[in-house]
């Protein structure tokens, strides 16, 4: 493999499937099992442009009600100032 981590310079990246959180304005979409290259040292993840474009198009279709997502989950939201410490 010729790739190198542009974040830490480590020379080995592994093919992984990961969870990706896409944000479009105030809308969120979680996509599971997204292919990426992950740095074995620092964990930085790299995605192909085609993968990111596909996710963006899918999210727009969902926002525009052209497509229904597989799951809809309620998400917990907190403001940092409101954290109980
Ligand atoms: Zn790295």
Automatic annotation (TrEMBL):
InterPro entries: Znf_MqsA-type. Gene3D superfamilies: 3.10.20.860. This is Type II toxin-antitoxin system MqsA family antitoxin. It comes from Methylomonas subterranea.
């Amino acid at each position: 493999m010729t790739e190198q981590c542009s974040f830490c310079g480590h020379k080995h990246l592994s093919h992984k499937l990961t969870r990706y959180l896409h944000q479009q304005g105030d809308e969120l979409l979680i996509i599971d099992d997204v292919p990426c290259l992950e740095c074995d040292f620092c964990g930085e993840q790299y995605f192909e442009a085609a993968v990111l474009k596909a996710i963006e198009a899918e999210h727009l279709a969902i926002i525009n009600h052209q497509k229904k997502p597989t799951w809809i989950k309620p998400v917990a939201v907190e403001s940092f100032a409101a954290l109980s410490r």
